[in-house]
Structure formats: structure tokens, C-alpha cells
What does this fold into?
Amino acid sequence: MEALTTRIPGPALMGIVNVTPDSFSDGGRFVERETAITHGLALIAQGAAIVDVGGESTRPGSDGVDEAEELRRVVDVVAGIRAASGVPISIDTMKSGVAAAAIAAGATLVNDVTAGTFDPRIVDVVRDAEVDVCIMHMQGRPRTMQDDPRYDDVVREVGEHLAARVDALVAAGIDPRRIAVDPGIGFGKTVAHNVALLAGTRALGAATGCPVLVGVSRKRFLGDLLGDPDGDRTLASVAAGLAAVERGAWALRVHDVAPHAEALAVLRPVLGSATVPA
Ligand code: PMM
It folds into this structure.
């Protein structure tokens, strides 16, 4: 089995398909599903190398969704995209049951923002199905994580946490070549923490030995940096994403694939292949 970075060479784009009521206006389940499938296929056409399907909002302040509802939202969307495209599909979930059902529907990557700490059985699902996994750092849980995040040295602490989680996954029998890590931009972090983590992308790769996936797209700290909390964040997202890629990020999780694809078309030849960890 080849390494994740060989199968999906970086810098790659992971296009976001959020199947949540706050992402898609209501109008019935069928419409919601079809909209999500069409959206996923559009992201692939724009250059996404992975599509990330999620049915539970993890925005600051959000509460979880129950498993039955999450399954209703995501399984048919994964199957619908898989029926029309061979591009790898990621399932953004912290629940083992949702991960297993999404894998059965065609997902080959599990994106767990809790790194297997919310529902440890997700680690067994990933191992037994022999799929890829992205583990993310979060301080606290979405409902309260932005209340008062604190670190002495955010890059070192996030690196140590992710390295420990990688060790736990490998000890459980997951092939290390299947693991990507993510600093969890915005998940229990101040603006300064997020900026430090972006600057420290290469250090996170070194601390874990894994390819680094970064999700900055449209996040609130960009509005803070712009001094415009309600304005469009597309250009800011591209700038932050490119900063991470220049510092060795393997993949960017983005809402707006087209502008990121344009930016990478220019950055890739400038950087050559030296930015992507083996
Ligand atoms: N961010 C969100 C959801 N899932 N997964 C990973 N691996 N990394 C992230 O940064 C991440 C994620 C929240 O963002 P959204 O609500 O805009 O999708």
C-alpha cells in the first residue's frame, strides 16, 4: 500500500460538502441530498482531489446531532457522489456508526475532528476497513471551545497531542501511511494561536511524521485579521491556505475550490515538489 501522499499527491484540495441545515436551506430531504451531490461533483470538476462530506456542524457553540439524523444526511450523499465519480470521498464524523455506514457507501477516508477521542470505536472501524484517516486537534468541545483557549506553546502542544494520537492509532493496528494530521484551526484557539499554527505547519509534520491537512477556509479568525467580521473571506482563505502550503501542508480543506485551484496552479510550479512531505 502506497503512502497517502503518493496516492493523493499534495498540495491537494479537499472540497467541503456540508449536509447540515445551516448549510443548505430547507426544502425537503431529497432536494437537500441532490443539492449536496451536485455540489460535490461541481467541486470535483473544479479540481478537488478529495470531497469531504459532513452531516454534523462543529462550529463554535454548536451542539451535536444524533446518529440517526447524521446517517440520514450523509450516507446517500456519499453513495451519490461515488456513483458518479472515482475521486476519494472523506466522511467528516466523530461517530463510528456513521464512519462505518459511509465507508460501506464508498468513503475511503475518515475525517474525525476529535481524533478518535469522542467515540474510540471509530479507530477499529478505520483499521478493519483499511481506509485513510485524518485526525484533528481540538481543545475542548465545539459548544464551549472558544470560551477561553489557553496554551503555553501552541505549536509544541498541538504537535505533541497529535503525535500521541498517531501513536495510539498505530498501536491499535492502523497503518501509519494512512494517517494525516490537522492542527484544527479555530477549534479552541485564539487568532494568535491560529496564526502560530499556520506558521508552524512544517513543525507539525515533523512532530508527527504525517502529512498535514489544514482547514482555514472562511473561518472566523480571518474576519478578525481583516477587521471585517461579516465580509467575504474567500481571498483571505486562499492567502492563509497558500501560507500553509508554502510551509509544507499536504492538503487544504476548502469551501471554494475554484479560487484555490487557480492559486495552486501558480504556486505548484514555483515550489516544485519539495514542499510535500514524503
Ligand atoms: N473544520 C470544520 C469541520 N471539519 N475537519 C478538519 N479535518 N479540519 C478542519 O479544520 C475542520 C474539519 C469546521 O468548518 P466548516 O463548518 O466550515 O466546515
In short: Residues 29-46 form the longest helix (18 residues). The chain has eleven helices and eight strands. Residues 16, 18, 57-59, 92, 111, 113, 134, 136, 182, 184-185, 213, 215, 218, 253 surround pterin-6-yl-methyl-monophosphate (CB under 6 Å). Residues 23-28 have pLDDT under 50 and may be disordered.
